[in-house]
Design a protein that fits this description.
This protein has 290 residues and is α/β, with parallel strands linked by helices. The chain has one domain: Rossmann fold. It has helices spanning 16-27, 102-105, 107-115, 174-186, 209-217, 228-236, 263-287; strands at 36-40, 52-58, 76-82, 85-91, 119-128, 138-146, 193-200, 222-224, 240-250. Strands 5-8-7-6-9 form a 5-stranded mixed beta barrel. Helix 4 (174-186) links the parallel strand 6 (138-146) and strand 7. It is globular and about 55 Å long. The N and C termini lie far apart (37 Å). The structure holds the ligand O=P(O)(O)O[C@@H]1C[C@H](O)[C@@H](CO)O1 and guanine.
């Protein structure tokens, strides 16, 4: 992060040509040509264990690619086959709170676009706002509320990625959501797979009690520190998007409650429950028509 360009108001931009170079660099290193990309959130990177014929590139070996600095994010691009489909997995992401500009945070998504990815799955660990959610539940994301104060689409618009004013009212593909909920039912997961609204604050602190109460009033079901910037650029460049949260903790809704949110609990729940997320994602990939 000592980059000179990373200066004024965190507005470092990354040009189409720079991203094209990164995409070409990656494609020159792998044989796989996937149309599906999957971003694995905190503690969800074990999905990589299900990928066959792996070709792995650590982020720090890709010039210009942002590197994950948070535990639970391995920082590897994994190409291979999942349920007979070619895929590229991001085993870990980067977040704005790590100090990356919004544009740099979403560079991997735009790189995927230029590598030929048409469908993007985004996953994350999130705090449950909805009082009916339990730790370990999953939530298919139907919409989001961007409270992060950042938007990677701010700045000069390059039409080669997409339009100046992209619509966002149907960001999360309704057919993929229906398919995922149907699969959850078939797999006997219906009791712990919900559909709901995800919100993002920039972090890195967990929310105050008042913030959580406000989110609840606003109709938010789960909250986190990622995903929305990725979805904004994915939709901007016309990708189909599917999003899923693993509820790793219940947010604190009572003033002066002794227990507090912590990243260890997030990773621990990921460790215990991510197998269900993996199974659901794998079945969805299997049934996907690409
Ligand atoms: O990358 P995700 O959104 O899964 O990670 C969440 C948000 C923070 O990075 C971290 C907090 O424990 O988990
Ligand atoms: N902002 C936020 N991010 C999370 N990631 C996992 N749990 C949480 C949470 O409670 N709040």
């Amino acid at each position: 992060m000592s980059d000179d360009k990373h200066t004024v108001q965190n507005m470092e931009s990354v040009t189409f040509e720079e991203i094209q170079q990164i995409a070409d660099h990656i494609l020159a290193k792998v044989k796989c040509r996937p149309k599906l990309g999957i971003i694995c959130g905190s503690g969800l990177g074990k999905l990589a264990d299900m990928v066959e014929d792996k070709e792995v590139i650590p982020y720090n070996e890709i010039p210009g690619f942002p590197v994950s600095t948070v535990p639970g994010h391995a920082g590897k691009l994994i190409f291979g086959t999942l349920k007979d489909k070619s895929v590229v997995l991001m085993q870990g992401r980067v977040h704005c709170y790590e100090g990356y500009s919004p544009q740099k945070t979403v560079l991997p998504v735009r790189t995927m676009k230029l590598m030929g990815i048409k469908i993007l799955f985004v996953t994350n660990a999130a705090g449950g706002i909805n009082r009916n959610y339990s730790v370990g539940d999953m939530m298919v994301i139907k919409d989001h509320l961007n409270l992060s104060g950042v938007n990677p689409l701010v700045g000069v618009n390059d039409e080669r990625f997409g339009p100046r004013f992209p619509p966002m009212s149907r960001a999360y593909d309704s057919e993929l959501r229906k398919l995922a909920l149907g699969i959850a039912k078939e797999m006997g997961f219906a009791d712990f797979v919900h559909e709901g609204v995800y919100s993002m604050m920039i972090g890195p602190n967990f929310e105050t009690v008042t913030e959580c109460r406000l989110l609840s009033m606003a109709g938010v079901d789960a909250t986190g520190m990622s995903t929305i910037p990725e979805v904004l650029v994915a939709k901007h460049c016309d990708m189909k998007v599917f999003g899923m949260s693993l509820i790793t903790n219940k947010v604190i809704m009572e003033y002066d409650q002794e227990t507090t949110a912590n990243h260890e609990e997030v990773l621990e729940t990921g460790e215990k429950r991510s197998k269900y997320t993996q199974q659901l994602i794998a079945e969805l990939v299997k049934k996907l028509v690409i």
